[in-house]
Write a structure and sequence with these properties.
Length: 168
């Protein structure tokens, strides 16, 4: 599988079913990597999936999909609440068959470019498990630094996540 054939593109509202499918795949593959659960999100309908693409509760989102051979093999979401000066990186995931081929880096760089396009001060990643050294190395190679802040992965979870950030 040649990653040079992977197209990174912005998701559109009419991609909501594709977005649902890849997000549920990500939650099934790495359930302890996200602040949500497959049980919760499997019940979402079209409005919730379109909100992932466009924004939710006053936020503006951009979602990037990595497409190869007619299927989505990766995703990343950039989000900004109102006039906030920081961008957030959410829902980063690459299909296991496509990992270590540069797809994840390309997705993150799209979110960074989006943050630069409107003058973001920082791009903040707030959801990688403290015990996930592979993810830590990936984000550190991309210039993210640990802020020292920690919080629970989600309500009821004993897992802690690191808060990372970098300039866009």
């Amino acid at each position: 599988m040649d990653a040079s054939n992977v197209l990174i593109r912005l998701a559109r509202p009419d991609d909501w079913e594709r977005v649902r499918d890849i997000r549920l795949r990500s939650l099934a593959d790495t359930p302890n990597a996200y602040g949500s659960t497959i049980e919760l999100e499997a019940a979402y309908g079209q409005p919730e999936w379109v909100a992932w693409i466009e924004g939710w509760e006053g936020a503006t989102n951009v979602m990037y999909l990595a497409d190869a051979d007619g299927a989505s093999v990766g995703m990343a979401v950039g989000s900004r609440e109102g006039d906030e000066q920081d961008a957030h990186l959410y829902a980063m995931w690459v299909d296991p068959a496509w990992r270590t081929r540069g797809v994840g880096s390309r997705l993150v760089h799209e979110v960074l470019a989006w943050g630069r396009s409107w003058g973001s001060r920082w791009v903040i990643l707030g959801g990688h498990r403290e015990s996930n050294d592979g993810a830590a190395r990936f984000y550190e190679r991309l210039g993210f630094a640990d802020t020292g802040e920690r919080h629970r992965l989600r309500e009821g979870s004993p897992l802690q996540v690191r808060i990372l950030r970098r300039e866009p």
